[in-house]
Amino acid sequence: MEFSMAQRQQYIEKMSTEQLDLLIIGGGITGAGVALQASASGLKTGLIEMQDFAEGTSSRSTKLVHGGIRYLKTFDVGVVADTVQERAVVQQIAPHIPKPDPMLLPVYDEPGVTFDMFSLKVAMDLYDRLADVTDSRYTNYLLTKEEVLERQPFLRKENLLGGGVYLDFRNNDARLVIENIKQAAEDGGYMVSRAKAVGFIYDDSKQIVGVTAEDVLTGKTFDIRARVVINTAGPWVDDVRALDKTHELVPQIRPTKGVHLVVDRSKLPVPQPTYVDTGKNDGRMIFAIPRENKTYFGTTDTDYTGDYKHPTVTKEDVDYLLSVINYRFPDADITLSDIEASWAGLRPLIASGGGSDYNGGQSVHITDESFDAVVNIVGSYLKKDASRTEVETVLKNVKQSAGDSTSAPSSISRGSHLEREADGLVTLSGGKITDYRKMAEGAMALIVKLLAEEHDRRFTAVDSKTYAVSGGKFDASAVSEALLSYTQQGVDKGLSEADAAYLAELYGSNTPKVLSLLETADMVPGLSIADSLSLLYAMRYEMTLTPVDFLLRRTNHLLFMRDTLDDIIQPVLDGMANYYQWSPEEKDEQLAVLKQVIAESDLASLKAQS
Length: 610
What we know:
It comes from Vagococcus acidifermentans. Residues 21-352 form the FAD dependent oxidoreductase domain. The longest helix has 20 residues, at 436-455. This protein has four domains: 5-58 and 174-251 and 414-455, FAD/NAD(P)-binding domain (3-Layer(bba) Sandwich); 102-167, 2-Layer Sandwich (D-Amino Acid Oxidase, Chain A, domain 2); 256-347, 2-Layer Sandwich (D-Amino Acid Oxidase, Chain A, domain 2), CATH 3.30.9.10; 478-609, Helicase, Ruva Protein, domain 3 (Orthogonal Bundle), CATH 1.10.8.870. The termini are far apart. The strands form four sheets. Strands 1, 2, 9, 10, 11, 12, 19 and 20 form an eight-stranded mixed β-sheet that branches. Strands 13, 14, 15, 16, 17 and 18 form a six-stranded antiparallel β-sheet that branches. It has helices at 5-17, 29-40, 77-93, 117-131, 145-151, 173-186, 237-241, 315-328, 368-382, 388-396, 436-455, 479-492, 497-507, 511-520, 529-541, 547-554, 557-560, 562-580, 584-602, 604-609; strands at residues 19-25, 45-49, 64-65, 99-100, 103-108, 141-144, 160-166, 169-170, 190-193, 195-202, 208-215, 221-231, 256-264, 274-277, 285-291, 294-298, 302-303, 341-347, 416-420, 426-430. By secondary structure, the protein is α+β, with helices and mostly antiparallel strands.
């Protein structure tokens, strides 16, 4: 089934004339997860996203599927257990996307560090148990100072005590979104990007029964009627709630901004993902992650009140990250001019409650006595010298230290919030990419209940723990074998092994469909066969409407392939203009937007000022 511009228009017409069971506002990872489960469960489902799918927040993460090991510093065992269990589920339903990539965590003898060697080992052992990590390739282990430096010779040597290695997973955030969206469409859902909710439709009881939406591409408005409307708009959930002018709005979201910077791997040769304290005694840690032939590092965590659509990287963001990375890797000497790409994203954090961001500071500090008690009881539990009840008793009696504060951005909860408001709108906010399926599952339980009780529409929710996304329909216990098989199919079609492997990694079980375009479509002049196939597939089967959609969210060209980006801009533009029959003026407009996005990613304005 195609999923293209032509289908987009059909979906708008169907949503305008049919009665939906569910309308979803927001096409990031949360909305995509709800859409997949609703469509697979038989609900007549529609989704509108005012930008491209994943454009707002879900393509701007640290691009990891975290296990949340930092929560074990404050022994928030429940949060870590939930997170690692969900990570395992995501691996099952999207096996071509999360990939195991063990993380190195160096330990320094410095004020304010997250772990010492003993507490790190206790945390990693508990983490492995919670995550059910039994494969000897991925179980945790400690490293001496010398072993850490043998792996990471560019790390700062002073005060280094050693380190630990534990299992974490790299992620392709935007790909995870589009694969959920595609599966929802395949199951009958109407998925429309660049359509914005501009008002609600009410019945005589002032209950929401639909949405007035604007087609951003044409400026035309249309009405969508739905028995249930759910708001999954990420940072914009309060904006959507505010469309109801009849009641006072109490904000749910306190967005914070996270920034990442990309340099060539030769400038920062990091052989494996590394997670290290900043050295600023600010309770934070940063990542340095190898990807393609680049290394990216981040993230910041600051309150944000600007334009949600265009969070930008400031000089303060760059100065902070460069000071940390150059301190931890003193021979790197990275400057602004070395930055090849960047991105800034917003975390849609719940404004109330505790918890902490994985990338931010802990939300509470516990007393030294409580910390020692917890370390000892967890150590005993892992040795089977203490019971779970004894562990729970100690955890319940943990005391916070004086002067604790939760006002810092890093202290805001990463939990999710599900609420049905007085006007009938269901809002699902907050959360993390790792938890998206579980959040959607909770929302689906409420949606199914409402449809049964209020509309006599009865559905059984799909088992979303085993329902694969598009591209994920192969044995999750044999990922390497499956990807090798798809790679060989590409080689058999005449692609180089590298290009065939690239397509297999990107598309998983959809790779044969991608390769079939060799027989049915003309390749794009100026592009390699792999890039031609990728572009053609993106337009026909992934509702890719602009060059930015393709180069930034359907692929990682703009972020991690900067060396070859300039060479493919014109062929991509020409190929899309030919496919969509753009006028010369429309083509010029698309090029201007792309150049602006690249300039922002390149930090061109900051470089010009320096």
